[in-house]
Amino acid sequence: MDLRRTRRGLETNEIERLAESGRFERVARRAVAPLDGPSVVVVVDGYFRIFRHAAFVRDVTLGLAGRGDVLAPGAAFGDRSAETGAEALCDARLLRLSPDAWQARAEEDPEINLKLAATIGRRVTRLQKKLEEMSRVGVEGRLASALLDLVADFGVSVPGAVRLDVPLSQEDLARLAGTTRETCSSMVAEFARRGLVHGGRLRGMLVLDVPGLEALTRL
After folding, report:
1. Topology of the domain covering 12-133
2. What pTM was estimated for this model as a whole?
3. Best exposed site among 15, 53, 107, 169 by fewest CB in 10 Å?
4. What is the secondary structure of 28-97 as a DSSP string?
5. What is the residue extent of each domain of the chain?
């Protein structure tokens, strides 16, 4: 099965080189690491829910990040980050660098800036898609789209399916889909009944029918 991965994070050797100019930060499960300061942040271990604070409503989930992903990427270019926080989905670790430290390393290894540019492009595309879905796609389609993003970013091919090994709760998935936990739980059960997925828990869930989920996003 072709996962058509869109995520291309930093490799271990690239993180190790960046670590010479930065500092590590441990983040406990469900703790929030701020992203609105003047630093570039790299995920070293674990998974994070990336969000933006919004006035009068709960924070808006922008996506998930895993090992090698760059958070608050605009800081490397002196821009204010669109991402204001990262909630750890498990005990995790980050690496923080000043924009100057990042650029100094990028001069030695231009590949990391290419990956940074790809990250920014992917985030903008995902955000535009999310905004469009909120206006024209129902809950079913938004949940299918959220699962497809997880497949593309974190899916592991197994015979006849794609396994998701991200430690998400139903609440986390609901936020990705822009709905409530109760609605999300009911919809996941419906997807399982239709043979689109297998398993009620998100960690270890098998996505059985990628084309079927894709069809739901076009309704």
Report:
1. Jelly Rolls (2.60.120)
2. 0.87
3. 107
4. -TT-EEE--SS-EEEEEES-EEEEE--TTSPPEEEEEE-TT-EESGGGGGTPPPS--EEEESSSEEEEEE
5. 12-133, 138-217
